[in-house]
Amino acid sequence: MESRTRRLRTRLSAVRPPTFAGRLHDPRTATAVGRRLGAAFAVCFVTGLISHYLQHPPPWAADRLPSRPVWGYRLTQGLHVATGLAAIVLLAVKLWAVYPRLFAWPPVKSVRHALERLSVALLVAAALFEVLTGLLNIAEWYPWPFSFVPVHFAVAWVAAGSILLHVAVKAPQIRSHWSRRSPGTLALPAADGPDRRSLLLGAGAAVGAVTLTTVGQALTPLKALDLLAPRHPDHGPQALPVNRTAAAAGISRELLRDWRLEVAGPVPYALDLAQLRELPQARARLPIACVEGWSVSADWGGVPIRDLLARAGVRPGSAAVRVVSLEAGGAYRVMEMGRQYAQDPLTLLALTLNGQVLSPDHGFPARVIAPNRPGVLQTKWVHRLEVL
Ligand code: HEM
Q1: Which residue in 60, 285, 322, 378 has its CB near the most CB atoms, within 10 A?
Q2: pLDDT value of residue 2
């Protein structure tokens, strides 16, 4: 028995962790890449929160959400997806730079060390989960049994918390390797410089390539370079993309045959399409900005929602509105719009797009278009407005 234990001990002491001679797997590289990765995650986190709370505002905030600037959501969600894609490259480089640390020997030195390693495992898992689910989501592929939105949102908090913890744990190293003038840098061998510059330059070039070939889905002057994004801003009915077609939403000709807009308020009324077209019409140039990152501006024509509410006996700015679509189901069949949106003169019940009658896929006969609003809340095939 004793000799067996001795043999096991000898064998264990013969196990050697791999040694890494590469000069790029050092704290200076981890810090340099970490800074950029941290910035990308910070932008993703803040813009993700904006998107989440615009879509699911807490009750006290619903009437305070600002409807300006008109391009607000276009900018924040475009940034969210662009920095998320950039983070995939940076995360790969960062994990490559630090992976020898994962073979550090002995694997666990103390309870504190074990906890630290556990937090690193959580950090890596949460970061990978966020970028990969985000990527698959913009490709509209959902190979998982859970609902994307709440899980992506919850894990974002885990990622943010574990990044803060990680930065706190590594603070001494980060401080001494933060800039070229940091004292830690002076101790590095001179030959290390060009290697690291090449790595950072390569990572920067990869981020640049990914950004340039995808950002045109939101930044229309670069749309000619939009080769890798799942959407092109010009592709779709009436030269504008759609996520949910009329067929997918179960909208048929029969359903639309007796279509009338019902407005439920102090003075309820209903109008058919011809009557709606006879009301004073307004025009607005507004973007459709999708949660998946693509966005396009278009000219919309229709009746301001606030005029429709005034006709129902609502004082200007005094009510929010619930919008109901003809869709048979779906998470966004019923949408609520706070007072700021409902009273904005640019918030329309749109009947035309770029001067043409809306196509079925864009929500014929009537859809909502409002400034600074996620695309999923620009309800299509509207048939009822309820004053709240
Ligand atoms: C999503 C964000 C991040 C991920 C997934 C990540 C991942 C990792 C991993 C797996 C390690 C090795 C763990 C260990 O040493 O036990 C590490 C080490 C390190 N990270 Fe990060 N990190 C992130 C963000 C950051 C940020 C924002 C900074 C600094 C601004 C940073 C600086 C460092 C430093 C200095 C080390 C130690 C490297 C060494 O000792 O060789 N990291 N990181």
Answers
A1: 378
A2: 58
